[in-house]
Amino acid sequence: MALEAVGESAGACNDVPGQRATAKRTTGVGMAIVVELQHIGTAGFFGHAEFDDRAAAEDYATAELVRLGETPGDARAAAKLATNTPADASARGYAVRIV
To answer: What's the whole-model pTM score?
Structure first.
């Protein structure tokens, strides 16, 4: 899949809520599945990324939540439960929504 990035970083989200990095990993076929991370304390979203399938979106969300300090188990659980309503990964105050 091609990577098209817009923002401060290519493919990795920023730790600073309010500063939005955007990664796009789609083949251009069908509608993209959107992932956004959320800092619960500020309710700010960041780390916007688009994928062709749910599995790739969950993998990205899990990796980014772990990078932010969430445990792998909490990160995986949050990614699986995420919908338009963000799923809380809990340990470090981050959540994810996947639409």
So the answer is: 0.72
